[in-house]
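Exercise 7.
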Amino acid sequence: MAGFTVNAHRFDPYKNFKFRVKWDGRYIHGIDRITGLRRETGVVLHREGSDPSSVRRMPGITQYEPIILERGRTHDTAFEAWADLVFNLGAGAGAEMSLRNFRKDIEISLLNESGQVVMTFRIYRCWPSVYEPLANLDGSGEDIMRERLVLQHEGWERDTDTVEPAET
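Solution. The predicted structure, written as tokens, is:
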């Protein structure tokens, strides 16, 4: 079976450098690094007393790894505004956290070389557990300033409404 159903001529898999991230109905500016999506299901070992001298293995609890978003530092406040919904130091007693709005669903879309969306993943009930507005500063460095957001979440799935586009 071919790896591409619509574009049977295509041989190469998709590249990892064309993507976009969306939350609150808008694409977030400047994200240039995202850790991969990963889930892991634990293994439950079980053996009854009358079983042979071997152990049965059953699926246990499934956990989803956090997702890390990184971008070059700009004046876009999307990372900071979301992190402030989880904890805002200056908000005063009882208002440090927005219990109503701190979780968001996000979408990560993979694009082909022409910029067409080829696959989208929906990540559910995300919230930032780490916000890093300034990376390490280095007076002799030559790198760009980076901003980082670590998202905890409760699972993801591929959006099956996003289908392989016809390539020209």
